[in-house]
């Protein structure tokens, strides 16, 4: 069951497959350029994706940043099953940790201070309480580690509606979803990260409707 208009039913197999199919369109060159310029290319041995979906971002980040361990976290069993297959088939990681957690109500069970790079893609707008959630992420990151959030952002409803129509959504559906899917501005996300303890927070806005935001744990 969908909880609100910004959150789909991620146990539905067709939706799970669609997330995987649209991965390279959503994580396009614009995204990777922003990601690289905000995070650099230094190795990050332990990488974690909160709301990992099909796990394809984790595959790419683990390879690019020479990780030995990937932690895939999601509440959807269907997403995690695909993430595990993708990580096993497409990487040579020493360790693949799969955790099924509803991040609104439960906690991730990994040794604290273990994560070098944490990530959430198209997920922050779905969680019930973003500040509580990001504070939990903060606790699991090593000193010197970073958290990267990628999400739709508010500020340009027309561009969002146009993009959703291109992806097959009705105009009415896109307008109804705009306040939910574009729940935060890039500045809001920076402020959520800062209030959870992250420093040196920066945002890059891509094509008016997506932003990549990074924060450092010092
Ligand atoms: C739009 S999908 C994005 C998946 C993936 N990050 C990507 O970009 O391909 C959002 C994901 O976040 C997960 N998610 C949303 N709210 C969650 C929560 N409270 N706890 C755990 N996972 C959650 C969903 O199950 C889904 O897999």
Structural summary, described in words:
The protein is an alpha/beta fold and 218 residues long. It has one domain: Vaccinia Virus protein VP39 (Rossmann fold, 3-Layer(aba) Sandwich). 41% of the residues lie in helices and 23% in strands. The protein contains nine helices and seven strands, in the order H-H-H-E-H-E-H-E-E-H-E-H-H-H-E-E. The chain has a seven-stranded mixed sheet with strand order 3-2-1-4-5-7-6, with helices on both faces. Strand 1, helix 4 and strand 2 form a beta-alpha-beta unit. Helix 7 packs across helix 8. The termini are far apart. S-adenosylmethionine binds next to helix 2.
Provide keyphrases for this structure:
218 residues, alpha/beta, Rossmann fold, 7-stranded mixed beta sheet, 9 helices, 23% strand, globular, binds S-adenosylmethionine
């Amino acid at each position: 069951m969908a909880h609100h208009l910004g959150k789909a039913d991620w146990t539905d197999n067709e939706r799970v497959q669609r997330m995987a199919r649209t991965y390279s369109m959503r994580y396009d060159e614009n995204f990777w350029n922003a990601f690289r310029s905000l995070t650099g290319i230094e190795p990050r041995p332990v990488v974690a994706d909160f709301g990992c979906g099909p796990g394809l971002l984790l595959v790419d980040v683990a390879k690019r940043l020479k990780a030995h361990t990937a932690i895939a976290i999601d509440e959807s069993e269907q997403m995690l099953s695909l993430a595990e297959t993708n990580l096993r088939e497409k990487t040579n990681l020493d360790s693949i940790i799969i955790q099924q957690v509803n991040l609104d109500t439960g906690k991730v069970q990994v040794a604290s201070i273990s994560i070098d790079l944490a990530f959430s893609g198209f997920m922050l707008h779905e969680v019930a309480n973003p500040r509580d959630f990001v504070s939990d992420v903060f606790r699991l990151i090593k000193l010197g580690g970073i958290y990267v959030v990628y999400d739709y952002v508010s500020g340009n409803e027309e561009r969002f509606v146009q993009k959703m129509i291109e992806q097959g959504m009705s105009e009415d559906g896109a307008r109804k979803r705009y306040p939910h899917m574009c729940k935060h501005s890039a500045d809001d996300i920076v402020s959520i990260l800062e209030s959870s303890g992250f420093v040196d927070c920066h945002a890059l806005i891509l094509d008016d409707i997506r932003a990549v935001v990074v924060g450092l744990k010092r």
